[in-house]
Amino acid sequence: MSESTRVAVIGAAGRMGAEVCRAVEGADDLTLVGRFDQGDDLGDLGGAQVVVEFSVPDASPANVRHCVEQGVHVVVGTTGWDEARLGSLRGTLSDHDGVGVLIAPNFAIGAILMMRFAQEAARFYESVEVIELHHPAKVDAPSGTAARTASLIAAARAEAGIGDVPDATTQDPDGARGARVDGIPVHSVRLRGLVAHQEVLLGGVGEMLTLRHDSFDRTSFMPGVLAGVRAVGDHPGLTVGLEHFLGLDD
Ligand code: NAD
């Protein structure tokens, strides 16, 4: 039997980080060797081979850079990784051959499948809108998953030669029609009692297809996080999206 993989968690005192610590401790093939949070010296990361990073958008790039510079693979769930941040990380990785970083906007397997199904369905429908619903402590809107879903849908529509979504609205002073991500309307709901949910509404003549995914609990993200931990060492360089580790990337 192969040796247990040593794992540390950054953001370990947070909601996701605490759940990851529990999941790692519950996995036979993984050993939790470090819990780090704001103000802690990351040092040698407790001797970890893989770090899981769930902190805050402003702290995540420096945390991930530290891990890469230590030669440690990283699985990142923190949001806020825009193109500039990804570019800078690619630069750091180019100096550290063999180190893998996975950044996944969503670790829930069902959410990844929903994005794939939305992408597949997009070319068959004239209208499409994305509605994401989250707990009221979420600080960013729209969610990374909703933005990514909209981008994938927009790309599929463009490839199929479908024009703008039909919408006669000419007056919307308060933004009631939602945000636009690559031309796709995206609506954000923040409601006590919710965790993370999303609907994609696809409308055609006389019909509607609804794709919906619900994360009822943060445990829903753990199978994806652990799959990332187990695979990241075999994927040097930067990977964005867990779908690439699940055989869904073609
Ligand atoms: P949280 O606020 O509960 O936890 C964040 C933790 O990070 C806190 O314990 C905080 O003290 C810590 N932190 C702050 N600055 C730090 C620093 N410099 N170094 C180390 N730790 C630091 O938030 P959460 O709900 O656990 O979410 C964390 C992140 O994960 C958010 O960006 C959220 O959007 C994202 N998220 C991603 C997924 C996914 O599937 N990818 C799922 C849920 C949440």
TrEMBL record:
<feature type="domain" description="Dihydrodipicolinate reductase N-terminal">
    <location>
        <begin position="48"/>
        <end position="107"/>
    </location>
</feature>
<keyword id="KW-0560">Oxidoreductase</keyword>
<protein>
    <recommendedName>
        <fullName>4-hydroxy-tetrahydrodipicolinate reductase</fullName>
        <ecNumber>1.17.1.8</ecNumber>
    </recommendedName>
</protein>
<feature type="domain" description="Dihydrodipicolinate reductase N-terminal">
    <location>
        <begin position="6"/>
        <end position="40"/>
    </location>
</feature>
<comment type="similarity">
    <text>Belongs to the DapB family.</text>
</comment>
<keyword id="KW-0963">Cytoplasm</keyword>
<dbReference type="Pfam" id="PF05173">
    <property type="entry name" value="DapB_C"/>
</dbReference>
<dbReference type="InterPro" id="IPR022664">
    <property type="entry name" value="DapB_N_CS"/>
</dbReference>
<feature type="binding site">
    <location>
        <begin position="77"/>
        <end position="79"/>
    </location>
    <ligand>
        <name>NAD(+)</name>
    </ligand>
</feature>
<keyword id="KW-0220">Diaminopimelate biosynthesis</keyword>
<dbReference type="InterPro" id="IPR036291">
    <property type="entry name" value="NAD(P)-bd_dom_sf"/>
</dbReference>
<dbReference type="InterPro" id="IPR000846">
    <property type="entry name" value="DapB_N"/>
</dbReference>
<feature type="binding site">
    <location>
        <begin position="104"/>
        <end position="107"/>
    </location>
    <ligand>
        <name>NAD(+)</name>
    </ligand>
</feature>
<keyword id="KW-0521">NADP</keyword>
<comment type="function">
    <text>Catalyzes the conversion of 4-hydroxy-tetrahydrodipicolinate (HTPA) to tetrahydrodipicolinate.</text>
</comment>
<keyword id="KW-0028">Amino-acid biosynthesis</keyword>
<feature type="binding site">
    <location>
        <begin position="11"/>
        <end position="16"/>
    </location>
    <ligand>
        <name>NAD(+)</name>
    </ligand>
</feature>
<keyword id="KW-0457">Lysine biosynthesis</keyword>
<dbReference type="Pfam" id="PF01113">
    <property type="entry name" value="DapB_N"/>
</dbReference>
<feature type="active site" description="Proton donor/acceptor">
    <location>
        <position position="134"/>
    </location>
</feature>
<feature type="domain" description="Dihydrodipicolinate reductase C-terminal">
    <location>
        <begin position="110"/>
        <end position="246"/>
    </location>
</feature>
<feature type="binding site">
    <location>
        <position position="37"/>
    </location>
    <ligand>
        <name>NAD(+)</name>
    </ligand>
</feature>
<feature type="binding site">
    <location>
        <begin position="144"/>
        <end position="145"/>
    </location>
    <ligand>
        <name>(S)-2,3,4,5-tetrahydrodipicolinate</name>
    </ligand>
</feature>
<dbReference type="InterPro" id="IPR022663">
    <property type="entry name" value="DapB_C"/>
</dbReference>
<feature type="binding site">
    <location>
        <position position="135"/>
    </location>
    <ligand>
        <name>(S)-2,3,4,5-tetrahydrodipicolinate</name>
    </ligand>
</feature>
<dbReference type="InterPro" id="IPR023940">
    <property type="entry name" value="DHDPR_bac"/>
</dbReference>
<keyword id="KW-0520">NAD</keyword>
<feature type="active site" description="Proton donor">
    <location>
        <position position="138"/>
    </location>
</feature>
<comment type="subunit">
    <text>Homotetramer.</text>
</comment>
<comment type="pathway">
    <text>Amino-acid biosynthesis; L-lysine biosynthesis via DAP pathway; (S)-tetrahydrodipicolinate from L-aspartate: step 4/4.</text>
</comment>
